[in-house]
Amino acid sequence: MNWGGSTFAVTSQAGDQKLAAEVAKGLYADDASLTDGWKTQTIFPLNQNVLKSDAFTNNAVDFFGGQTANKDIYIPAENAYKGFSYSPFSVYYYAQLQAETVKINAGKVSGDEAATELQGIMVNYAKSQGFTVN
Fold first, then answer.
1. DSSP alpha helix (H) spans, 7-132
2. Where are the domains of the chain?
3. Is 67 helix (H, G, I), strand (E, B) or coil?
4. Is the pLDDT of residue 7 over 80?
5. Which of 89, 84, 55, 60 is nearest to 72 (CA)?
6. What is the pTM of this model?
7. How many CA atoms lie within 13 A of 58 on its CB side?
8. What residues contact residue 74 under an 8 Å CB cut-off, 6+ apart?
9. pLDDT band of 53, cuts 50, 70, 90
C-alpha cells in the first residue's frame, strides 16, 4: 500500500514565510541535499530528472548490502502504482489502530489479538455507518 510521503510545507502561520520556504527547500530540494537524500534512502525523490537518471536507477544501496533497490524494487513499484482510495472512515481507522498499538506496546495484547480486535471494531463501525461488509 502506498500512502504517500511527507512534505515540507509552509503554512500561513509562519512568522516569516519566505525564510520558512527557504528552509523547507533546503531540506531536500537543492541538488546536494536531494542527492544525499536518495543515496542514503532518507527520501524517495519526486524529481523526475533524478528518477530517470542512471545514477538513481543503478545506485548500489549500502543499507541493502549493495543491492540496486531502486532498479529492482522502487521503480517497478512506482510504475505499477494505480492509485489509492481512502475509505470514508480512514480517520476513525487510524485512531483505532493507534489505540491497538498502544495496547501492544503496553503488553496488554499480542499483535494477533490487536489485529483481530481492530478487525471487529472496524466491521462494527462500518455496519453502524450503513455500509455492507462482506
1. 17-26, 31-39, 48-51, 54-57, 69, 75-80, 90-105, 111-128
2. 17-80, 90-128
3. strand
4. no
5. 60
6. 0.53
7. 3
8. 44
9. very high
